[in-house]
Design goal:
Elements: E1 4-6, E2 13-15, E3 59-62, H1 77-91, E4 97-102, H2 107-118, E5 125-130, H3 134-143, E6 147-151, H4 156-162, H5 167-183, E7 187-192, H6 200-218, E8 223-227, H7 245-254, E9 263-266, H8 274-283, E10 288-291, H9 305-316, H10 325-338, E11 355-356, E12 384-385, H11 390-395, H12 402-406, H13 409-421
Parallel strand pairs: 3-4, 3-10, 4-5, 5-6, 6-7, 7-8, 8-9, 9-10, 11-12
Antiparallel strand pairs: 1-2
Length: 427
C-alpha cells in the first residue's frame, strides 16, 4: 500500500510513487519506431511535463583525459599535467570544475595521474574510469584515488546485443561490480550508458532503486551518471522517454530518490543538442554536467566545458570564482602544443567567434557599446567588421579599440553614422 509522506524537497504531503520492478523481458526493447535504421530518429511527445528543480549547488565535471582522448591522439604526460593545471585555474577556488577523470591502463596515464595528484589541488578532484574487476579496483585504491567510474550499460542494445545478457543477468552483474567497488574502499560512480535508448521504467529505475538501497545500507554515496551516449536526448517539455532529458532527471530523483549531488549528466553533440541538454539537466535536478575542453570527444564530441562556464554565469549571474581568462590560454595551448585545429567559428575560442563580415552587425543601439570588445576577462556578445584589427583577431584575447576602428574606412563611416544618428548620452 502506498503511503502519504511529507517531502523534504517540496515541503508538501506526497503519495509515495509507484515502485517499479525489473522487467526481465525475453526479447530486447529497441524502440524501433523511434529509432528506425532507415530514417531520421523520431521525437515523440506524450505531454507529460515535469517540474523544474534546479539544485542550489550546480557545477561542472571534466572528461578531457578520458572521453576527450578517445577520439584523438593521446596527450603526452607533460600535456596532461599542464592541462590539469589550467583546469584548476579555470575552475577557481570554489571548485566549479569539481572533478576530472583519468584512464589508468597505460604507464603514461598512471604517471600523469600521479604527477597531477602531487600538485595537491583540492579541485578538480582526480577520479578514474576503469574496467569493472577487483584487480583494477585495488590498483586505483593503491594510487590514492577515492572515486572511480564503472560502466553499467542500460539499453537493450547493449545488454542483449553487445553483452549477450538478459536484463536480470546484467542487473546482478552490475550490483556485484558496485559491491566489489565499495568493498575496495572506493566511491562508485555508475555510468548509465545509452540511457536515452533504454527502457526507463523497465530497467533504469529498478536498477537505480537497488543502487540507492545499497548506498543507504553501506553508507557509501553512489553517483549515477546519465550518459546520452548517442546524443539522442532532447530538452523539449512534454517529450517522451527515453529521449526526454527532463524526464530522465526527474524520474531518477522522483522514483529512485537519487539526490541532486549524486546525479550527473553526460551528453554528446550528435544532434547539436549537447549544451542545451546539459543545461536542461541542471534545470531539472542534476548538480553536475560532465564536459570536455573544446568539446573534444567521440564522433561529434562532448559538451564543451567552456560553454557550460558561460551557461552557469548566464543562469546564476556570476562566475563563482571561475577565471575565464584561462579559456583562451587553454585553446591556444591545445591548438599549438597538440596540433588540434579549432574550427574558426567555434564559440568563445574560434578565430571568428567575435568577427563579422556584414558591417551592419557591427553597430548596436547602445551608442556607448559600439567600440566595446573582447578583452582577457570579459566576452561581449556583439561583433566587429572584418580586418578591424588583424592582430587582435589573431590573438583572440586583445581589446578591439577605437584606434583600430578608426584605421579602417568603415570605422570612419561608423564614427560619422554615430555622430549623425546616435545622440550623445549625458554623462
Amino acid at each position: 500500500m502506498q503511503e502519504i509522506r511529507l517531502s523534504n524537497k517540496t515541503n508538501k504531503l506526497e503519495l509515495d510513487p509507484y515502485s517499479y520492478q525489473l522487467q526481465d523481458v525475453e526479447s530486447p526493447e529497441l524502440f524501433r519506431e523511434m529509432f528506425p535504421y532507415t530514417e531520421t530518429p523520431k521525437i515523440a511527445f506524450n505531454y507529460r511535463r515535469v517540474p523544474e528543480n534546479m539544485p542550489e549547488d550546480i557545477f561542472i565535471t571534466d572528461t578531457t583525459f578520458r572521453d576527450g582522448q578517445q577520439s584523438r591522439a593521446p596527450y603526452t604526460m607533460e600535456q596532461m599535467v599542464h592541462i590539469y593545471k589550467l583546469l584548476h585555474e579555470l575552475g577557481g577556488p570554489n571548485g566549479m570544475i569539481r572533478q576530472t577523470e583519468f584512464f589508468v591502463y597505460s604507464e603514461k596515464d598512471r604517471k600523469a595521474l600521479e604527477k597531477c595528484m602531487e600538485l595537491g589541488y583540492e579541485f578538480p578532484e582526480i577520479t578514474t574510469w576503469i574496467r569493472a574487476n577487483k584487480k583494477d579496483f585495488e590498483m586505483v585504491k593503491s594510487i590514492g584515488v577515492k572515486e572511480t567510474g564503472v560502466l553499467v550499460s542500460c539499453s537493450d542494445y547493449h545488454i542483449f546485443h553487445k553483452m549477450g545478457l538478459t536484463r536480470k543477468q546484467a542487473l546482478d552483474k552490475y550490483l556485484g561490480i558496485v559491491s566489489d567497488c565499495i568493498e575496495a574502499g572506493l566511491r562508485p560512480r555508475c555510468h548509465f550508458e545509452d540511457i536515452t535508448r533504454a527502457d526507463f521504467y523497465g530497467f533504469v529505475v529498478p536498477f537505480a532503486n537497488r543502487l540507492m538501497e545499497m548506498s543507504e545500507q553501506s553508507g557509501v554515496p553512489i553517483k549515477i551518471r546519465a550518459c546520452d551516449t548517442m546524443g539522442f536526448g532532447v530538452p523539449y517539455p512534454g517529450a517522451s522517454l527515453p529521449r526526454s532529458v527532463s524526464g530522465i532527471i526527474y524520474g531518477l530523483q522522483h522514483y529512485s530518490g537519487v539526490p541532486s549531488e549524486m546525479l550527473e549528466w553526460h551528453g554528446h553533440n550528435d544532434f547539436y543538442k549537447g549544451v542545451v541538454n546539459a543545461t536542461t539537466a541542471w534545470m531539472y535536478g542534476a548538480s553536475a554536467v560532465n564536459c570536455s575542453l573544446l568539446g573534444i570527444g567521440e564522433r561529434t564530441g562532448n559538451v564543451p566545458l567552456e560553454a557550460m562556464v558561460f551557461e552557469y554565469a548566464s543562469l546564476r549571474g556570476h562566475l563563482n570564482g571561475m577565471n575565464t581568462k584561462v579559456i583562451t590560454e587553454i585553446a591556444d595551448y591545445i591548438s599549438k602544443e597538440t596540433g588540434y585545429e579549432i574550427p574558426p567559428m567555434t564559440p568563445f575560442v574560434g578565430e571568428n567567434f567575435n568577427l563579422t563580415r556584414a558591417g551592419i552587425h557591427a553597430l548596436r543601439t547602445d551608442a556607448d557599446a559600439v567600440f566595446e570588445g573582447r578583452n582577457g576577462s570579459t566576452v561581449c556578445f556583439f561583433t566587429f567588421v572584418t580586418d578591424i584589427s588583424t592582430e587582435s583577431i589573431k590573438d583572440r584575447g586583445a581589446l578591439a579599440t577605437r584606434r583600430s576602428l578608426e584605421m579602417t574606412i568603415f570605422g570612419k563611416l561608423m564614427l560619422i553614422f554615430r555622430k549623425i544618428f546616435i545622440p550623445e548620452r549625458k554623462r
